[in-house]
Specification:
This protein is an alpha/beta fold. The chain has one domain: Rossmann fold (3-Layer(aba) Sandwich), CATH 3.40.50.2020.
């Protein structure tokens, strides 16, 4: 679910402006999964731009408070959402923890880093949602610690059907500042892509696993 159309448009604008989101339909990127993709997102770049990170953190914080109040803990998903998650926690004056993809192999072998106060539920912050697998793995780790997860907020989602199914299956509510549809709307309005490229980008999202340029 999108926070607001205006926020979604501005978020897409900022992410394109700083090249956190790159569009290249003719020469696709190769994801770790092996998928060929005409788009690549690295939202961690937003941390390097004060105006952008302030906008993103402020809007995430406002949405957290509006949806869930302030009697909670903020959890960032490592590594991409540690920075933005901590900024949100700072704005709301809330405790912060982060979740590793898997437990450490040494030391205390933690997967959850930081102290989550007993009795306070958790809201998870993510930077990007693709299939949702890694994000939901973090939720699973938090629940295994006996913590109540209220929901997840992310900067951007590709809007894949498989992600929607995964979140429904795991009964996790997801809200995002922007998504793929708003990104394409903004890119087309700003003439950042041609009509032909828009068709290519739209067709990729329908079946990313089997898409070829």
């Amino acid at each position: 679910m999108i926070y607001s159309k205006q926020t979604a448009a501005t978020t897409a604008q900022f992410l394109l402006q700083i090249n956190a989101i790159k569009l290249n339909p003719e020469n696709p990127f190769i994801w770790a999964s092996g998928w060929k993709s005409p788009i690549y997102c690295d939202n961690r770049l937003a941390l390097s731009y004060p105006e952008v990170r302030e906008f993103l953190a402020t809007n995430l914080a406002e949405q957290v408070e509006k949806l869930y109040g302030k009697e909670l803990t903020i959890a960032g998903v490592a590594t991409g959402a540690i920075g933005i998650g901590m900024l949100v926690a700072q704005k709301l004056d809330l405790p912060f923890v982060y979740v590793r993809p898997e437990p450490k192999k040494h030391g205390r072998k933690n997967q959850l880093e930081g102290h989550a106060p007993a009795g306070k539920p958790i809201v998870v912050i993510e930077d990007l949602i693709s299939t949702g697998k890694s994000s939901l793995n973090a939720v699973k780790a938090l629940k295994e610690e006996g913590l109540e997860v209220l929901g997840m907020l992310a900067l951007f989602s590709y809007g894949f059907g498989v992600a929607e199914e995964n979140f429904k299956l795991n009964e996790v509510v997801l809200h995002t500042l922007s998504d793929y549809d708003h990104l394409l709307l903004h890119a087309k309005a700003e003439n950042a892509i041609t009509a032909e490229q828009l068709t290519t980008l739209s067709s990729w999202r329908k079946d990313p696993a089997n898409w070829t340029p």
